[in-house]
Structure formats: C-alpha cells, structure tokens
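Hello,

Following up on my earlier ticket. Below are the eight sequence lines again, exactly as submitted.
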Amino acid sequence: MDKMLKIGKYEFKSRLFVGTGKYPTFQLMKEALEASGTDCVTVAVRRVNLTDKSKESLLDYIDPMKYKILPNTAGCYNVGEAVRTARLAREVGLSDMIKLEVIGDEKTLYPDLSGLIEATKTLVKEGFTVLPYTSDDLITALRLQDAGAACVMPLGAPIGSGLGLTNPMNIQIIISRLKVPVIVDAGVGTASDVAVAMELGADGVLLNTGIALAKDPALMARAMKQACEAGRAAYLAGRITRKYFMAEPSSPKEGILR
Amino acid sequence: MDKMLKIGKYEFKSRLFVGTGKYPTFQLMKEALEASGTDCVTVAVRRVNLTDKSKESLLDYIDPMKYKILPNTAGCYNVGEAVRTARLAREVGLSDMIKLEVIGDEKTLYPDLSGLIEATKTLVKEGFTVLPYTSDDLITALRLQDAGAACVMPLGAPIGSGLGLTNPMNIQIIISRLKVPVIVDAGVGTASDVAVAMELGADGVLLNTGIALAKDPALMARAMKQACEAGRAAYLAGRITRKYFMAEPSSPKEGILR
Amino acid sequence: MDKMLKIGKYEFKSRLFVGTGKYPTFQLMKEALEASGTDCVTVAVRRVNLTDKSKESLLDYIDPMKYKILPNTAGCYNVGEAVRTARLAREVGLSDMIKLEVIGDEKTLYPDLSGLIEATKTLVKEGFTVLPYTSDDLITALRLQDAGAACVMPLGAPIGSGLGLTNPMNIQIIISRLKVPVIVDAGVGTASDVAVAMELGADGVLLNTGIALAKDPALMARAMKQACEAGRAAYLAGRITRKYFMAEPSSPKEGILR
Amino acid sequence: MDKMLKIGKYEFKSRLFVGTGKYPTFQLMKEALEASGTDCVTVAVRRVNLTDKSKESLLDYIDPMKYKILPNTAGCYNVGEAVRTARLAREVGLSDMIKLEVIGDEKTLYPDLSGLIEATKTLVKEGFTVLPYTSDDLITALRLQDAGAACVMPLGAPIGSGLGLTNPMNIQIIISRLKVPVIVDAGVGTASDVAVAMELGADGVLLNTGIALAKDPALMARAMKQACEAGRAAYLAGRITRKYFMAEPSSPKEGILR
Amino acid sequence: MKITLNGDARDIKNNSTVKELLDFLKLKSETVAVELNLAILPKNEYDNRCLKEGDKVEIISFVGGG
Amino acid sequence: MKITLNGDARDIKNNSTVKELLDFLKLKSETVAVELNLAILPKNEYDNRCLKEGDKVEIISFVGGG
Amino acid sequence: MKITLNGDARDIKNNSTVKELLDFLKLKSETVAVELNLAILPKNEYDNRCLKEGDKVEIISFVGGG
Amino acid sequence: MKITLNGDARDIKNNSTVKELLDFLKLKSETVAVELNLAILPKNEYDNRCLKEGDKVEIISFVGGG
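Thanks for your patience. The regenerated structure is below:
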C-alpha cells in the first residue's frame, strides 16, 4: 500500500484536495465530495450574511469528522488582509490549517510572491499549518519552504481556467528540489490533468472548478479520484522511457510464417 | 452504470485491451492482466517452437473463460501474409476476432493503409470480426468501416514508443465521424495517455509495452485500469470549457473583509 | 550560398510556394506574391465564367515569365476527376506540373490516399511532373515516391486551418526517409509555422490562406519569406541540443567579484 | 517601416539583443554579431585576468560605435553583489544600461524575484537604465515596471537550455499588461523560437547560446535576424484565426468539372 | 445603541453581550468567529463581553470556496 | 445549333469552329483549354474543328487557388 | 519419410497421421493450428489425414504479443 | 608594499598611483573600472590617488557574456 501523505502534523489517505465553491447546490457538492474520496476540503472565509437568513450554511453539508477543513484567504490582496483572514479562520475552531492566498492581480489571480513569503513567515510564527498557493517559480517555492510552509502549492494554470499544467517542467523542477510536499493547485480541467500532475511526482492535487462546474459533478469527482490514484500508481510503477522516430514491436520477431 | 462496449457480436465490460508480449515472466504477465481488469488480451501467431520443449506455453497462463483472445497479425508485411495468419489464428479455435496488422515499414511499424483495407475486405467476407490497426487518417478509417471492420484502431504513436497521443485532433476527428467503435491502439506510455484518449471520446484503448516494460507491471496495469475508467467518466461527466489568459475565482467575491 | 531546390526537371531559388486563392483583390495578391519572393504559384482549374464577362482574369496579374505556374486539382473527389483536370490544366500550355489533390472528405479536405497513389501512377506515365498533396503518413509518402512523384507534399494541418504542424514527428520521419523533396503543404497560419517546418529539414513550404486572409497580406508574405529563409538557415546552421531541467550560464563562472 | 524600439532613453533599430559569451573564437563572435544585425550586445563584468596577459580582450572585437554595450550582473546571487557589479560596469564608462540578474539558484539560474525588485529600485534611483532578467510571472513584471525598470525581460526557458518558450501564455499575459517593452530573454534554441516570441507581441528577444554554440554561428545569427523580423512582421500583419477539426478550401468551390 | 456590524450601521439593545447578539442573529458560536474593533474576540469571552456604542463588530463564517 | 457549353445548353451558329466560338466568347486560346465530348481538343485543331449539334464542350482556365 | 515442418526438413514415421505427429511432438490439438501444403487442415481431419513424402507442414500456436 | 589585487596578495612599488599600477599591468583605463577598498574609484582620480599598504584593489573589465 502507498504511504499516507503528511502535511505538517496532519496525515491524509487521499491525495486529492477538493474545493467547496461554485456547485449548483449544496446537495450536489455533498455527493461530489463523497465521490472524490477526499479527506480535506477547502472553504472560504466570509462575513456572515445577515440579510438572507433563509440561506443554508455550508457546514450543514460538511461533516468535520469526515473531512479536514482547509480555510483559504481567497480575495486577499495584501499581507494584512491575508493574515487577518487566517486568524479569524482559525478562531472558528475547526482547523489551524490555512490555504494562504495573497493575490497580486484580479484578472489572473496570480499570487503576489513577495507578499506570500512574508505572510507565510508571520503565520508560521503564530503556529499555523500554512499551505501557500504560489506560482511555478522554484526560488519562491524554496523560500516558502525556508519560511516554514508545511507544503507548497504551485499553480498548474490560472484558477478556474481548466488549462491543466501549462508548464510541466517547472512543476517537475519544484518537485525534484523541495523536501516538503508539493500539491499542484489550480488549473485542473479534467481527469487527465490530475494524472499528469501525479505522474510528475506531485504529492497531491487541489481542485474545485473542474468538479463543481462539470455537467455531472459527482461523476467528474469520481473521475478525478481515479485519475489521482492512477497517476500516483503510474509514478510509483515506473513508466517506460519514450522512444522517438521509431517503434518497438510488442510481438516476437521470430517464428513468423514466410 | 456505463454501457458495455460492443465490437461486432462481442461485448466488453472493460474498455482496456491488453497485450501479452514482452513481460519479464508469464507469472508477472498473469498478475498484470488481472490488475488491468481487461476482458480481452491480444496474442501473436507464431510457429510452434519445436526445438525448445521446456518452454512453457502462453495459454497455460491465460484462462480463455476469463479473457477473450484477440490474435494479431503482427509481423505481416503484405495482404497475403496477414490473411494467411488470420486464418490459422481462427483455426486454433479460440476466437474469430483478429487484430489485423499489415505493416508497411519495419522501422516505424506504421500500417500499409491500402493493404489494410484490402485485407479487411477479404477477412470480413470470410466471417472474421476484424479489428484493424491503422493510422490516424480519417479517410482510411472511413474506408475500413465501409469494408466491414468491427471497429477501427488508430495509433496514438508508434508501437512501443510510449509517446502518447501525438496528434489528438486527428483521433478526435475520427471519433466524431465514425459509427463503429474507435479503439486507440499503440503509443500509450503511461496512465494519463489512456485518460487523454478516453476523454477525447475513444471507446477503448489497447496497449502492451506500457504495462509489460514498466518497472512494476502489475502496479502500472492497475494505473492503466483506473486511468481508463477516469477518462471515460470525465468524458461522460462533461468537462469545463478552457479559459485563456484569465482566471475565474472559485471563492465568492462578496463578503470579503475590508 | 544555399543550393537550388530541384523538383523533377525544375529548379527553384525560393523554397516558398504560394497559392493565389482568397485574396481580397488581384492587386493585393500581386503585391503579396512579390513580397513572398516565391518562384512558383499554385492556381485552380475551373470552367471559364461565361456569364460574368467583366470579371478580370487571374493571369492578367501573374507573369508566367516570373512565376512557374502550378495548377492544382482541388475539388476533385476521385481519380477520374483528378486526372481529367490535370490533363486540361496541362493543355492550357503553361505548365506540365500538377499539384495533385484527390480529396477524400469534404469537411477536412484530407486526401484519399489510395486514390492519390493511383492517380500519381497514371499522370507520371503521361509525363506530368506530379506534386501530390498527401497526409503525414510515411508509407503513403514512400508509395508516392515509388510511383514517380517529383516530390511529396504532406499536410501540416487541415487546409486553411492555420494550426501549423500538428504532428512534427511524422513530418520529420517522412523527411528522413524520402529521397525526393518534401514540401510541407497546408496548415501554415503564421511565419513561425514555416520556420518550424524548414527547421525539421523540409525542402520547402506551400501555403495560401495564411497570407491571403492575413490583415495585411503583403506584410505577411514578407514575413513568410523571411521565416522560410530563417528556418532553412537554422537547419543548415545546426541548432544547439535541448537541455531539460537545468541551465547553462552564457557568462563565465570565473572572475566573479566576491 | 516599423518604429524604433525605445528602452529608456535609448533607441534600437534591431529588436534582437545578442550575447558575447561561449563563441569558439572572438573572430567567429564578430562575424555572428554582424550577421545578427543587432544594435546591442551583452557583456559580463569580471576581474581582469592578470595572470594570462596573452589573452585578447573582448573589446578589441566590439566597436562601441556600432553596438550599444549592455553589461550584465550574471553570477550575482544577492542584491549586494548585483548592485556592486552594476556600479563597476557603469564606471567603465561605456554604458549606463545594466542587464540586471539576481540569480536565485545555481542549477536553473532562475532569478530571485524579491531580490530583483529590490536591486531594480536601488539602481533606478542611481540613474541606471535597468533591464531586469525575470521569470514569466506577471506580478513580478508589474512590480519591476513600478520600480522603474526600462523594460522587463521574462525568460522563455532556462538560460542556455534551447527549449524555446515553455509557457507562451504567461509571456503573452505579460505583454498584454505592461506599458514598458517586453524582451524575451533566455531559452531560445533556434530561429522559430524567436519568431514565436515576436508573434506573441514581444518587443524584442535576447539570446546568446543559441547562436554561440550552433555549428555555424554566423549562419544561425542570420537565421535569428530573419526570424526576428519575420515574427515581428507576422505580428503586425495580423495572422488568420485558427480553425479546429475542419478545413477551409483555398480554391473556389464553383466551376468544378463534373 | 449603535454599532457597526459587518460594515453596516446597526441598532442593538444596550449593553448586550456578544453572546446575546449571536443568539439574536440566530448564529451558533461554534461556526463563527468574531472580531471586535479589529481584534479577535476569543469564544470564551462571548458570554460576558458587553458591546459599547460605536463598536465595530465583524462576524465571519465559512462559505463554499476553493 | 444547340450544344452544351460548360454544363449549360447554348445556341450557336451552325458549323462554327472552336476558334470562332472562343472569339465569340472573347477568350484567348493561350489561356484556356477545351474539352470536346470528354476528350481534350489540342489547340492546333481549334481553327478547323467544326462543332456539331449536341456537342458537349468544356472550356476551362486558371483561377485563384491554393 | 521426409517432410518440411515449420520450415525445417524432418524425418518422420511413414504414413503417420497429423494426430500422430502432434502426439509425437507432445502438442495438444486444441492449442495449435495446422497448415498442410499451404492449405489449412481442419482439426477433424487430424486423425485420419496421413502425411506424404515431401509434405510441407506448418504448426502454429499463440505466443505473447501486442 | 603589499596590497590585495583582485583577491590575491601582491607586491607593488611604494606610493605608486592607481594610474601607475594600471600602466604596469598594461591596462587601458578606458576599458576597466577600479574599486578601492570596496568603493568605486572615479577615473579622474587614477592619476593622483596613491595606494597604501594593505589596500584592497579590484580591477574589472568586460568579458564575453549573455
């Protein structure tokens, strides 16, 4: 059997991390989360909606006994906002993990790398288990590791774009150089994207839109689960090397009728 | 549940077709075939080895009750050889299916397309269930369908190359235009290659070297199985559309602390 | 200086072949052809338009002293039509070269490979200089060479698609295996596509839509000319080998201030 | 005619910037620089070699009247080293431009982005014309622009790798968002790589190894020159849009013999 | 008495505690966090911490996000 | 006299030669090719080859194409 | 008596049947196919079909392949 | 008199100026830059700036680089 994935003091059986945003209904979300086999779901931190009481609460549909809660700092555009949001998230009392986002640009939602490193240092000092959402830049990944991040989460492509891994070599370079786990976060559009990331040697994949906005979220969630396991198994099994410009027969060359 | 795959008069639960060549040992092959979950295995037709008696026989390791046998005409370089080999294969009495190969070049093992069409016509007339190994050329695929092929099997890349799908658009064009099933044959190097093929809408995938020469064939076989199911599920689930140059937040834009 | 390109008994200084279709006006076409530096332009064979007399004639804008005329058999869907059209084209008296097209499908305009080989044999016997438009299939390319084709013209992508080379490896395989010149025909969308083809070792490139429907045809024509020369020069100059996952400093490692 | 490229207070006719490292001989370098048509060459700053007097000096082969000199800070691993090197480079008296490199990792030579921004601020205050070598990260590029960089120079791939543009979308995003010129620096392996960069809308390309280590540097330099002009022209000419899964005939559909 | 609650002005009963405010808003203290005048308020203070005129109160919870 | 010219029925002067037909249509023989009843007609026969009732004539030329 | 078996010359007992040959070679008829002088020999003829001097016999079976 | 030149200990004539050092090293002042004890030395000081025992001198120039 494959070993558990360790991030900080936490262990996960599944290597898939799934977001809870953008589902047509909470019920569909619940089914998708189950189908995904994930142990850990991300949530956003927002002001309680005081006008609309009717609104059901996300937490009515997520069993904290079943899923570890990973709050994010989505929507934070500077270190101060991100740190403040992280502290409030922890105060809720369900998790001291934080998916740290310090967004640098509204259109691409690419991270502000300097701000990210600074916020990571601050939150690590305060005892958070920090999972920073970063770019595919090796140097930043190394700095985040030095800053005490529990893992690094390089983006495969812009959040919600569904483009998959736009620069697999950079992801592979990060994987080959870091000691902490590498979770590919953002950009996953379909199952094969997850398999590709895991085959590069990623320790896990985090995704949301790819499942939530699929025509059939639960079915896509199952696909992501299998692709994650398939990619991991293929990585461990040791793929064949690529041969260019030529073929290698799989049937014997001897004993052919002539 | 997903519907069965029908090829001619035969039905298959698994959409993965696995070859029996190049495994380190028959025992490892047996374990890999089991792990792959396949219903159908390909075999080559060769002169019985009369010198080396010791040699175990392939069929001692394959239960014809468990796996449908799909003999191939690998190594045949013209229509005559291919038809002769197909007839002998059927005479063994285990299957009237034939994976038809008419090889046009020894270095690339690319098919001779005109010869392939001619041999297909002949064998269909003789009542064979013909599964032709072809290139990713749409026109040839249409001619093979007209000739009565039970499916078409375009190559993703040269046999044994492990390059995956070198021209996904051509495969997708074939899938979108044919009525008979499309099985991607050859070129698969790792699990994600299988997922990609299935996500394009392929009805199945046939592979051999990718499993047989992996460091751990049984583990890679399981990876291929999961990737095949993952890709199929993702295809049925309806993936999100790709967005270029921009991101789409998965967390709400409202209620952010300011 | 680079050697001339020989196709059959003809020699060309420029390795760019340019079509004459789809330009906004004949005048823009004339300017584009000049800017492209081509020696050889393709034309289509059609019934004279008897209703609209006003219509200017293409040949008023093409000086046969300056450009070799290469008629095509575009729109022919079987061997008979293609051969009949080729004979009429030659009878006009401007050229015995024929860009042979036997189209197999209206939507993709992919060639009918068997028909193409048959038509090539017929026209070669009749003394034509045959330039067949074919797929990127090596075996067909070899058969066309055997049939006496003066060169082979594999498609990079569907005609007019502007997708560039969708399967560079197959083009490179053909280049490495054929004795007659290989001209990449169809699919070119922009200058770099031409450079890529020439860098693979192609002997020339044929294009039409990429220039004719560009916003500024004459400027794009100049771009295609330069890209063709650039790609050819790069091929002859011998590119550096690719290095993965690591860098190689271009500045010395010694003498650095510390 | 195309407009001049302005970087800070300087203007360039050629959009190609060429390095002076790694040539087999100074004479071959001189010929390559001429063939490249560049106006601006990069040089490294190093301790004078006092042991080996015989050694010819680079500057004997570069006419400062003909080429603007762009010294780099290659080999500097922190802000202090980079600033110190830049000051010394300027003191030589040939140029106040500096190709600013703050390297973050010896194996990939990827830049230290935080250090790069800091060093840019310092040198801009001191009146330098700063051309920072950066990653393809949009946010960093925007910060560098804010810091007063005269242009930004995102890498296409690791220095000397010859891999071309590994993430064209990121380069295109930077181009679309910055006001200062964008020069693609590093990774170029062959002519088409330059054309691709310019077609994305890059204002220029900087390269060294691709020319210096080609089998025939002068010929490759000419190829790079033509590719740069070709890519620029294609960008200005407005390429056709890509069409997937279908073709568009370039010959008329009317008047075909039937 | 006037306070600012999640950015909006709001009238509440004088001297009401944070706990009373949450109850009034039908919010379970286990699923929210409270920030009082930009400082986090520990859950164990909800019962006896009284709100004052002009206090800035932020009450946050978790919503769907990625 | 009726012939089929490029697929359409057409009335022309009796016994007119191909050359006369081309002149009437204002077509230069150097830029066209003529097919008479599915067989190519060599240019040197244009002058003296007379057309007959019901002949199928195709006159083609070059147009822009790729 | 001499025959050609799978491409090689071979001496076998006179008038032996295909079945006898298979038994001698320790081959099960259910896992092979036999071609006699380039024509397939149906399994039901193995028992009584006698081989003749100079016969060309091919015996094939299945091996690992893709 | 001992100085450190480009990282190596070096004996030079007492009280020699930077200009004299460059001349001795056969270096043209137009193609180098000089750092004296970690501070850049302007070219116009080469002539009259005398070196002292223990000075740290760096002389740099341009070499091939990318």
